Amino acid sequence: MCALWQILPAIKGKYQCLSHICGGADAGRELTEKVIELPVKVENGQRYSSVRPNPSKVVITVLMSVKDYNNYTSRDFEAVVDLADWEKNEVQYLPILLTKVPDYCKIISVVPQNVDFFVRK
């Protein structure tokens, strides 16, 4: 797998690692994008009876090896919001934080990047 994710667009929307970057056995490995839906977990919300992010799920687009495409599922990734941001800074929206991402996967996008939330004391 590529240590540095320098990618060269190739034929039919796939990607190839540059051989001088990937080196050795991983040179020339094809890459592809995978879209995964993740539930949003709430951190630091224990002081409240209910904290509900809205929307409760996010969609991520991940760049990975074609060989590993079927090996990664939503269980291999984790999306959280930290309620401490709201308590400290009184922010209106909470940013999505990806706390668990497998090695050699590159996150291309997270939709939405921020979520609204409902808190019940």
How many domains? The number is: 1
Q: Note the main sheet.
A: 7 strands, mixed
H/E series, N to C? Answer: EEHEEEEHEEEE
User: Any idea what the radius of gyration is?
Assistant: 18 Å
Low-confidence stretches: 1-16, 18-25
Number of strands: 10
CATH architecture: Beta Complex
Work out the helix count: 2
Level-1 CATH class name: Mainly Beta
What is the fold's blueprint, element by element?
Layout: E1 7-9, E2 15-17, H1 19-22, E3 30-43, E4 50-54, E5 57-65, E6 78-82, H2 84-89, E7 94-95, E8 97-100, E9 106-111, E10 114-120
Parallel strand pairs: 3-6
Antiparallel strand pairs: 1-2, 2-3, 3-5, 4-10, 5-9, 6-8, 7-10
